[in-house]
């Protein structure tokens, strides 16, 4: 099973967080909610995103994309700020073109918000951190 190592924002302990899991990840040491930021392949998309018990912020990006590299730290920060309430799934469109095709993505970065197995909101292009935070807050409130 694919996973990513993240540091607990409360105690600093490094924890392995799986791409797919029931519930939400918690720190092994202090039991605080962990930021759930994972890389998702095209074959993992359905289980990791559509099958998630918590809302998922999907970041469709590519390594050669400058705006994607600008947005990425903001997306990961939003994941840390919403630990326990949100999962962040990073999808490299070069490695998972089927995800981009399925979602009719014509420009990157594209951020998709999934809840209950379906897309509920999207943002295309690089946006300032404050604007992305407002979009996510408003979208989560409407779920």
Automatic annotation (TrEMBL):
Signal peptide (residue range): none
InterPro entries to which the protein is assigned, alphabetical: Thioredoxin, Thioredoxin-like_sf, Thioredoxin_CS, Thioredoxin_domain
One GO CC annotation: cytosol
Coiled-coil features, chain-numbered ranges: none
GO molecular function terms noted in the UniProt entry: protein-disulfide reductase activity
One of the GO BP terms on file: cell redox homeostasis
PROSITE patterns: THIOREDOXIN_1 (PS00194), THIOREDOXIN_2 (PS51352)
Pfam family membership, one: Thioredoxin
Record's keyword terms, sorted: Disulfide bond, Electron transport, Redox-active center, Transport
Every Thioredoxin domain range: 23-141
Family statement drawn from the similarity comment of this UniProt entry: Belongs to the thioredoxin family.
NCBIfam families: thioredoxin
Protein name: Thioredoxin
Species for this entry: Georgenia muralis
Lineage of the species this protein comes from: Bacteria, Bacillati, Actinomycetota, Actinomycetes, Micrococcales
